[in-house]
Design goal:
mainly alpha
Length: 330
């Protein structure tokens, strides 16, 4: 009886700690996201909303029980920017329901957190990011209209900015968090040298591309391809994350390729760039990883076939099989 009570107490403590950790991470990501904001049609939104990525990653790692920590994190973010009103609870529901919907859809299609298959990358893009975040954007913008904070004719521009910001959080932040959870094996010395070279080039080229008055954003894509080919998802997503942050800073400061553009044009250009870059990094890495895994499976099958043929040639039974007894009929 005492053992059962201790087990229940331990589970309760673990659940409380996990809930608090998710809430703190969500709140911290929210504060980071609020540092850089865009204003469209009188509404303020973030081009990348990291908490959605934190929420989806938490659900994929901890399971459905993480929803309470997400709801608490949403509430903390709201309290940090405004006073709590009953109508704000609708936003809590919307911002909690969207990641939960993403988790349920991903689980339904057999999503694997290692993102080693193309189907996993496609599921994260189309189910978790683009489809599920429709819920949070619709609830949030609809609430702004109902409370009279924006005009009804401003629905679509504001809704688009909100939706893409939430989706970008899933596309960029969730893969990085899933990778950090599984990162264990250190690189070889030769790979560290190449990784350091790639990092130095990124640190020099990305700020130039995002701040130059000449449109040089296309220079980022060779870096993404290099990172994906040599360092798979870890390299490409870290490169994409850094580039998205630098592009967002340039857009909110209205400098470089985002200078002399209207607010809506800045939003469209930034979101289109971030979206295509994240899609390129995620899907290209998934394709490369899937091809490598397929090649390794074929190599293992060929090696096993060679071993079987060698045993048969030597007149021995293949590994794992008993030799046939001639005195027994079969």
């Amino acid at each position: 009886m005492v053992g059962i009570r201790d087990l229940e107490l331990r589970r309760t403590v673990v659940f409380a700690v996990q809930t608090l950790a998710v809430a703190v991470c969500y709140y911290g990501a929210g504060r980071l996201g609020l540092i850089r904001r865009l204003v469209v049609e009188g509404a303020v939104f973030t081009p990348i909303w990291p908490p959605t990525g934190v929420a989806v990653a938490s659900l994929l790692i901890l399971g459905l029980r993480a929803w309470l920590g997400i709801a608490l994190g949403v509430l903390l973010v709201i309290l940090s920017i405004t006073t709590l009103r009953p109508v704000a609870l609708v936003n809590v529901v919307g911002n909690t329901a969207a990641p939960v919907c993403a988790y349920l859809l991903l689980r339904k299609v057999g999503f694997r957190t290692d993102l080693a298959r193309l189907r996993d990358g496609l599921a994260l893009v189309f189910l978790a990011a683009l489809t599920s975040m429709l819920l949070s954007a619709s609830v949030g913008v609809g609430l702004l209209i109902l409370t009279g904070k924006i005009a009804a004719e401003s629905f679509w521009p504001v809704w688009l900015g909100w939706w893409v910001g939430d989706a970008m959080g899933v596309l960029i932040v969730t893969p990085v968090l899933l990778l950090l959870r599984t990162a264990r094996r250190p690189l070889l010395l030769s790979r560290w040298k190449e990784a350091a070279g790639l990092a130095v080039i990124c640190l020099a080229l990305v700020p130039l591309a995002t701040r130059s008055t000449v449109s040089l954003l296309f220079l980022v894509y060779p870096l993404l391809i290099w990172a994906a080919l040599r360092f798979l998802l870890a390299g490409s997503m870290l490169c994409a994350l850094f580039t998205s942050v630098m592009a967002t800073i340039a857009a909110t400061d209205r400098i470089g390729p985002f200078a002399r553009l209207s607010r809506i044009e800045v939003m469209i250009k930034l979101q289109a760039f971030n979206g295509t870059m994240a899609l390129t990094a995620l899907l290209l890495s998934a394709v490369i990883m899937e091809q490598r895994n397929t090649r390794r499976s074929v190599e293992r099958a060929c090696q096993e076939l060679v071993e079987v043929l060698e045993h048969l040639t030597a007149g021995e039974a293949p590994p794992g099989r008993q030799p046939r007894d001639p005195d027994r009929g079969g």
